[in-house]
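Batch manifest, entry 17 of 40.
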Amino acid sequence: MWLTINGQRLDQSIQRYVDGGLWSAVAGRVKGNTEQARQVNAYFDTLTGKVLKLEREMVLDGIVINFDSFREKWLGIMEAPRMLMEIFQQHNDQMEALIRAGKDFSPGTLDRYNTCRDHVLA
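Output type: structure tokens
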């Protein structure tokens, strides 16, 4: 199976064998009305539906559709989960940078955030 996104092609085997004489390159499907042809063509329809569903989900989630983002979604490669304390520390580091820059927050605010972090950690 080939998926082409912005000129880049993702090749993936679908683990199905079709005799070359039964393949219609124009239609991109198996010719005939045999049980095998119906099964393989139904599988192609399922894969096409999956591609369209993933595309729709990415649009709804506001994810830019490019080769890498679609490939990761198709293959099930997920962004590594972020842990709560990591996010908390990142927030406190950003607050500290804003305080040093003299913007919007007092040092006491950072002290309270650090205390809150310590309580969550305990």
